[in-house]
Amino acid sequence: VSSQRDTEMALMGRARKDTVSPWAAAGASLVSFTCGSVIPLLAMVLTPTDYRLSVTIAAVLAALVVTGFTAAKLSGVKVFRPVARNVVVGFAAMNITYLVGYLVNLLTGQPV
Question: How many angstroms separate the CA atoms of 69 and 85, rounded?
């Protein structure tokens, strides 16, 4: 959402008369989520089980950096802030998701 806002602000600064359609924003989100998920997915599928966790974490980091960098370049803003935001928020979301799954497994008695 913040990357989308950066893109919208850059576009509005360049041409005031053009507006960003909600459909265009939705399409951009669809493409970015799909492209961003391919790197970790391939890492999980193609990596031997012994190395899967560390390689997947590195792949997630790479995907977050690439998507933040791409969003910054497309919106015409400086690169550091969108990349840092993407990495910090992405890792926070990943850890919260893991914690929720762990707690659900713990409460239901499922093996972790």
Answer: 11
